[in-house]
Design brief:
The chain has helices at 36-39, 62-69, 73-92, 120-126, 131-136; strands at residues 2-5, 9-19, 24-34, 57-59, 99-101, 105-110, 113-118. It is of the alpha+beta class. Residues 57-129 form the CCDC81 HU domain.
Length: 138
């Protein structure tokens, strides 16, 4: 399953096969596909991530966020959209600030490369069996 953050990109989990010395591992790992069209980031490069078509992508669940945060849904929606807009404007102005996603990772820019760096705990939380393999390939 994946989650779309309109104006920023899509988070998803993908399954990949990795060949070890004696066995093949099938691991789940997180990916982030940047919404390049919305951000208009000509001066940056970013890793090309393709989310397979069989993964269901859903929009961010503002109702659930509203319940968890105790803020009205319209406040949560406005806050998320304004934050994405502010980040996009900062990137366009050449300000390469990290965008932190709690318990997931950091969207960061270094040497004009914009990429998502997932926290090891996020990766190992998805896959305990082959966590080292998943970590190495993320």
């Amino acid at each position: 399953q994946g989650v779309l953050l309109t104006g920023l990109g899509t988070f998803a989990m993908v399954q990949e096969r990795f060949h070890g010395e004696e066995e093949v591992y099938v691991v789940r790992r997180p990916v982030f596909q940047l919404d390049q069209d919305t951000l208009c980031l000509q001066e940056f490069t970013f890793p090309s991530v393709v989310i397979p078509g069989n993964i269901k992508i859903k929009p961010l669940n503002y109702r659930q966020l509203s319940r968890v945060t105790s803020f009205p849904q319209y406040v949560v929606e406005d806050c998320v959209q304004e934050t994405i807009l502010l980040y996009s404007l900062q990137l366009r102005d050449g300000q390469c600030l990290p965008f932190v996603f709690k318990a997931i990772g950091v969207l960061c820019c270094k040497d004009d490369v914009l990429c998502m760096r997932f926290y090891p705990s996020c990766i190992t939380g998805l896959e305990s069996k082959a966590d080292r393999v998943a970590l190495l390939h993320t």
